[in-house]
Amino acid sequence: MQNDRFEFTGKAGEYFGIWIVNLFLTIVTLGIYSAWAKVRKKRYFYNNTWVAGANFEYHGNPVAILKGRLIAFAVFVAYTLAGQFSPKLAAMIALVVMPAVPWLLVRSFAFNALNSSYRHIRFHFFASYGDGLRAMWPLILVPALALLLPQIDPKQPPKEVSAMVLVSAMIPGLALLAMYPLIVARVNRLRINHGRYGAAAFENTAATGRFYVIYVIGGALALGAIFVIAFLFGIGVAFARGGGWENAALAAIPVVYVLAFAFIFAFTRSRVSNLVFNTTRLDGQVSFKSALRARALARIYIVNALAIVLTLGLAIPWAAIRTARYRAECLALECEGGLESFVAAVAHDVSATGEEMGDMFDVDLSL
Questions:
Q1: Could you give the number of structural domains in the chain?
Q2: 142 falls within a domain
Q3: Which domain holds residue 63?
Q4: Partner of 133 at 20 to 30 A CA spacing, among 1, 15, 22, 90?
C-alpha cells in the first residue's frame, strides 16, 4: 500500500501580488472583476497543491462564475429587501426560489469538477435535478414554516408577545438548526458519490449520525461559551462602580468570544473534513487520510485574525497561505499498487472511451 502526502508550495509573497491586483481591479470595476479574481486565485492554489509528484490544475471560465454571482446577488438582494418589509414576504421569496436551488447546486458541482484536473485528466460530476432535490428538500420546510406559523414583525412588534407566538417564531430557526447536519451529510454525499476522476468513481460512506454527533458537540460548546460570556457580563453589571472587577470581566468578554468561537469553528470544520475524507474511496483502490486537529486549526485562525486586524487586512494572503499549507500537510492518500499505476489505468480508460463533457450549464455558485 503506497502512501502519498499532499503538499502545498504556495508562498505568501507570491500570492500577495495576485491578491492585491485582484482587490484593486475588483474595487475599480465595482465587483465585476471578482469572477476573474477568483479564477486567478484558484489557479494559484490548485497549481501549488501537489501529491505524488504532480499538481492540480484549474480551468474555470470567469464568465460562468460571474453568472453564478449575479444569480446569487439577485436572490440575496430580493430576500434582504423583502425582509425589510415583512418576514412573511421574505419567506415567500425563499419558497419560490427553493425549487431552483437543487438544479443550481448540481450545475455548480458539475462546473467545478469539470474544470479541475490532475495529470491532465479531468474530474466530472454526473447528477440529475432529482438527485439534488433529494439532498436539499428538507430546507424547503424552513420558509414553509415561516409562512404557516405566526411571526414577529421587527418593524411593528406587538406590545405583548404571548409564549405561543414567541415559540412559533423560533420554530423555523430551530428547524434549520436541527436539519443542518442532515443537509451537510447529504450534500457531501451528493458531491462525492456522483463525482468521477476520468472514468473512476468516488464513493463516500459517512453515516448521517456521525455528522449529528459533530454538530451536537459543537452546539454544546457554543452554549458553554455563551454561558461564560453571560456570566462575565453579569459580573460586570453586578460590580458596576465597585472597583476593577467589572472592567476586567467586561474586557474578557471579547477575548472569550474570539477564542471560544474560533475553537468551535475549527472543531466542526476539522471533524467534518476528517469524516468526509476518511470515508471516501476512489474506484475502491484509493483511500484518503485526513488528520486535521481542532486545536492546531484554532491557533491558525486566531493568529490569522490578529494579523489581519493589526495589518488592516494586508495579512490576508499570508493567512490564506498558512491555512492551505496546514490543510494539505494533514491530508494523504493510500493506493493499492501505487498511484502511478492507478492514474495510468484511468488515463487508458479515458483515451479508450473519450472524456464525456456532459450537457453543462455554465454556472458556479461557490462564492
A1: 1
A2: yes
A3: 59-154+162-197
A4: 90
